[in-house]
Every structure is written in C-alpha cells, then in structure tokens.
Amino acid sequence: MQLHSAELDWITPEAEQTIARHARVSTKDPNRAEYAKLLSYCIKHGHWSVFEQASASFEISTTRAISPQILRHRSFVYQELSQRYCDPLDTLTVSDEPWKFELRTQAENNRQSSKNLLPLYLAEHFWDKLADLDNQIKEIYGEMLSKGVARECARNMLPLYTPTRLHMSGTIRSFIHYVGLRGQGDTQREHRMIARAIGYELSKQLPTVIDAVKESEDSSLKGWSFLK
C-alpha cells in the first residue's frame, strides 16, 4: 500500500459512448458512432449534466490527516476503513514509514499552506523523535487492545499520520471538477498527489473528455494542467 495514491475500482463500461448516447436522448439516432465533437461542445459550453450519466470509483490510500479533506467533497459517496471495527496498524500494510511524512516550512502569505522542504538535518531531527513516539504509540495502543479496551476508545490516541483506506465513488462530472480544483498547486501536496493520480487514470479511460477538459478556459478546471 503506497500512501497518498489512488487506483481505479471501476468505471461505467464504454463511458464516453454512454455519455454521448444519453446526451442525444432527444434525437432520432442517439447511437451515432461519432461523439468527440459533441462531448467537446458540451464541455466548452458548460453543459455538465450529461457527464452525470457515467460514474467511477477509486480506492484511495492516504492518512487520517488527508482523508477529511477528501470527504469534504459532498457530491461523492465514500466508504472508509473504520478504526472502531479494526486495528488499522494490523489491517493496513504500508510501504512507507507513515511517521516519516514530508516536512515543509510554513507559507508566508497563506496560513493554511506550506512552502519549501525543511532542511534535511532538521527533518531528520524530527523524524528521529517521531520514530520514538511512534513506537510508544504502537506499544500503548496494542496494550490497550490486549487489556480489553474497545477499539473505539483506544483509537483516540492514534496520530493523524495513521494510514487509512477509502473508496470514493461519483459521477464523471464530479471527478472532472474535483481534479480541476484539487489538482491545483495550492492544494496540500499529499492531497494533490491523489487528485492527480485520479486525473491520470481518467485521462486513460476517457481520452476524448479529458482532452476537451484540458483545452477548456474554465478557471475552475486549471488543476488538469498537470497533464499538458
């Protein structure tokens, strides 16, 4: 499990053809083979409702620090690993060291953002301390469970860098606008990595749609510029 990543669960079969066919519901021949011009026209002129006629789902691996940012996007539906139901330290196997998260300096003009990487010597200083803390947390959490403390109580001591897994399902319209927003440079880097992973996969699944999105002058879609 690679933290801050996303993999496709499923997508509507022949999604672009389905969107085009449904967009032509009022025509005599909705099954016409050509659809690139139609989808491009819909995007250019903001006819977004047709892109609700196909959907997708992604499995996301991240941490408890990032998942609340994703869950704010209310046009999606989610299933997230429950720390009441399982021990996340046992259920999830991650390739990263979660406590060794990237350390960046505070942005000067944006109190919710970061700027440059912390000097390596200083980052290593904090990572050493976090490694010790992580061992303590795991030991105490494990002891709590072994002594019969409920998971829903013991989880209160788990840090925000604790790994989590969730499934995020929604319409293609929702994903287009999600990546358009969260793929931008002012999104927290870890969240941006997830959004761009989703965008990259959608560009393979929906090449006609995403090519048109990349050409759009809509400022809310500028997060897709990473594909250019």
Describe this entry's structure for a reader:
- By secondary structure, this protein is of the alpha+beta class.
- It folds into 2 domains: 138 residues, Gyrase A, domain 2 (2-Layer Sandwich); 59 residues, no CATH class.
- 42% of the residues lie in helices and 16% in strands.
- Strands 1-2-6-3 form a 4-stranded antiparallel beta sheet. Strands 4-5 form a two-stranded antiparallel ribbon.
- Strand 4 and strand 5 form a beta hairpin.
- The chain is elongated.
- The model has no long low-confidence stretch (mean pLDDT 96).
Summarize this, please?
42% of the residues lie in helices and 16% in strands. It has helices at residues 15-23, 36-44, 67-71, 88-91, 120-146, 151-154, 172-182, 189-205, 207-215, and strands at 5-11, 55-63, 77-80, 104-106, 114-117, 163-171.
